[in-house]
Write a structure and sequence with these properties.
single chain; two-stranded antiparallel sheet; Arc Repressor Mutant, subunit A; mainly alpha; 183 residues
Length: 183
């Protein structure tokens, strides 16, 4: 079994060496270990290979779970490997089917009736309308008081300091404004 390269080939070779009544999982792992394949580390891979071989009628399985026994059927694999030309043809055919599905999906969206668009338009929110009434953009304090409004004056932080300090701050602000104007 040293000349085999893949795990599947190693499993098939081990099954060929098995007795005529077949072998269990444990016996198969022993055969693989004797051949140099660490089967316990590759347990999932071996189980997957066995499942594939059973599906292709290359191996017969008798029993379930841990009591299952595997033996060769003597038949060839039902699905032989394809040559490169056959693989290329399958890829082209698969691409054609995929393109046809995509084209059908796009045509479905393009052929959607206009009435459905109107139904979706009803779901779009409308812009809010302005409230009816006087639209006063701005007014002076005198106009506001004349309408009956009350004005409450809040003092600023610089108005709460002593008068001497307020004069200094006012002078600094005036100098700063003059500098900004370029004068």
């Amino acid at each position: 079994m040293s000349d085999t390269t893949t795990y599947a080939e190693q499993v098939r070779a081990a099954l060929a060496k098995a007795p005529a009544d077949g072998c269990s999982y444990a016996e198969l792992y022993e055969l693989l270990a004797a051949a140099g394949m660490p089967a316990k580390e590759n347990r999932d891979r071996v189980i997957s290979i066995l499942r594939y071989l059973v599906a292709r009628n290359y191996v017969a399985r008798v029993g379930v779970a841990g009591t299952a026994r595997f033996s060769l059927t003597g038949k060839a694999m039902e699905k032989p490997r394809l040559n490169e030309a056959q693989q290329a043809e399958r890829r082209r055919e698969k691409g054609r089917r995929r393109a046809a599905r995509r084209k059908a999906r796009l045509e479905h969206f393009r052929s959607e009736p206009v009435a459905a668009l109107g139904a979706r338009a009803a779901l779009i929110p409308k812009p809010a309308r302005k409230a009816a009434g006087p639209s006063v953009l701005g007014e002076t304090v005198a106009e506001f008081v004349a309408r009956g409004g009350r004005v409450q004056r809040l003092s600023a932080s610089w108005e709460q300091m002593d008068p001497q300090r307020r004069v200094e701050v006012t002078a600094v602000v005036a100098d700063y404004r003059r500098i900004l104007r370029g004068g």
